[in-house]
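Sample 3 of the quickstart, ligand nicotinamide-adenine-dinucleotide:
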Amino acid sequence: MTSVAETLRNSYNKGVTRPLPWRKHQLEQMVKMLEENESAFLDALAADLGKPRVEGFITDIAFVTSEVKSMIKNLKKWNKPERVGTPLVAMPGKSRLIPEPVGVVLVIAPWNYPVHLLLVPVAGAIAAGNAVVMKPSEVTTNTSSLLASLVPKYLDSSVIALVEGGVPETTDLLEQHFDHIFYTGNGTVGRIVMAAAVKNLTPVTLELGGKSPVIIDASANLRVAARRVAWGKWLNAGQTCIAPDYVMVNSSVRDGFVDELGKAITEFFGEEPKESESYGRIVSPNHFARVSALMEGGTAVIGGETDAATRYIAPTVLLDVHPDAQIMKEEIFGPLLPIVDVASTDEAIAHINANPHPLALYVFTGDKRVAADVIDRTTAGGVTVNGTIMHFSNPNLPFGGIGESGMGGYHGKSGVRLFQHMKPVLTRGTKMDPSIAYPPYTDRKAKIFRKVL
Ligand code: NAD
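Result:
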């Protein structure tokens, strides 16, 4: 039986994806699919993740449509050959980098932002001129089946396919020949993807996770810091790859910060967050059990309530967290926020450097020198100073991890370039053909070479 990758490759080889008007039309159709079915998407996200409708709209609909619209607007510009200089040795000649699609791309997405994390890379691959197979997460079943029913209606099925399924189906896809694999999810599966890519020398982009720390320096504006940490942490009930995982706060301002966190939680979700229409749920019973168990690692001073029947875990702040507790070892990926006291920002930097490079790093400070010092002395996928999450929202800042948190960045132009080969082309003129460039290598030529090379 012909594999999906082969079927798409046959159409790709006929040039279906090359013309810019085709790419533009597909991207427009993607926007149309999201806009015309917005309500169905929000229903599916609510059923899968208890996602508040406004949150679903912002993170899974509007973010995608705005990325795709910007790709449409810049399609010609980003696909234009880039002129580069030509050294004397290659004269007479003109040099260009021609953006060329890589071929057939596989995009594998996770469940936490199941529309966004699937369609943004898919849009980049289409804008770059590729055929694409997309595999949504099986964990968010409602969103997956909605996408499966809509994608063939809106997009060109000869070169854009959606395959639903879990481990067996993904394993089957990974046995096929792709020209780029873009995977978002956990590092264990990231390694499986990379190992599978080896046999065809397929390049991979791995968008992984990990523990993203927050540093609260003694100079921070505590109210603003608490509100921004609270927003980033409890968005999607903590199930965000760049959610603040834990906070390292200067002990001199710890109590003030925790106090402000409490106020922010009440302001955002009311006295009873369980009743709030702005607060989500844990995706599955398995994840609920895993996150609830992590609570043991500290003392809940805010929140702490759970309800297995509705997969609810309150926005929870933990103090007295033991460094060896499981919550300080694995990515929490849920609404628990451990607070660790540090004597200085230096101590926080040392802690970060003793652990795998985080996907995101957040530092709150009123002192620019402290921010510069933290940025200079640590390595992270991305940084927001005096904020959380927001570096992700700037398409001019490529988003991705480093080391354990992943490889490769996307969004905006970088999300198109990722799926292209910048083919270097030197075109030489024929009017001049100086014999200096050819043998025999006389002493006179050698002297000239020494001067010009
Ligand atoms: P998940 O369980 O949905 O898995 C992700 C994808 O991998 C799914 O499509 C799934 O079908 C596939 N998969 C699972 N097991 C597989 C296997 N054995 N072989 C092949 N494919 C397999 O999502 P997840 O991994 O639980 O997602 C959470 C993780 O993803 C967290 O670590 C989070 O930080 C990270 N994440 C990273 C980003 C980012 O942009 N860097 C974004 C979101 C989530």
